[in-house]
Amino acid sequence: MASEEFRLVSPEIEHGGRLPRKYTDEGQGAKKNLSPPLEWYNVPQGTKALALVVQDIDAPDPSGPIVPWVVWVVANIPPTIKRLPEGFSGKEEEVGGDYGRIQEGYNDEKLPGWRGPKLARHGHRFEFKLYALDDEVHLGNKVTKDKLLDAIQGHVLGEAVLVAIF
């Protein structure tokens, strides 16, 4: 019997595998700070929009405990879209079609879009969490993780997670 589980995958990253350098601030030239390609399968029935939050879940707060560091926030991904191509961040309008409806939010560097990590030490886990929602979210112009998570409460039909190590 085939698995009907809502899944998030990347052709470049195995679950629990390494995040390639080109998706980080440690890449080189044009192969630096690219958003990784992502694909999803078995989106729950009734999904009207998808949202994505990517965080370094091992980020240390110099003044206290580990506090996740937001790398990327993406809202209002139409359910007709089944993937985000490599280097998609910042190019919604160029890609066109339904991709133009997507809203990228601000990361913890206070910049819109994907910002790959540059770490003092490696071995951090990066969690990609995709939410299937029963409605689009209305977040205004400045989308943040906190605004998104508040807005989706009570609207989540399913979650799919991919973890990568860097």
TrEMBL record:
Composition-biased stretches (Basic and acidic residues): 1-29
The segment annotated Disordered runs over: 1-35
Q: Which CDD domains match?
A: PEBP_bact_arch (cd00865)
* A Pfam cross-reference name: PBP
Among InterPro entries, the record links this protein to:
PEBP, PEBP-like_sf, YbhB_YbcL/LppC-like
Report the superkingdom from the record.
Eukaryota
Please state what the protein is called.
YbhB/YbcL
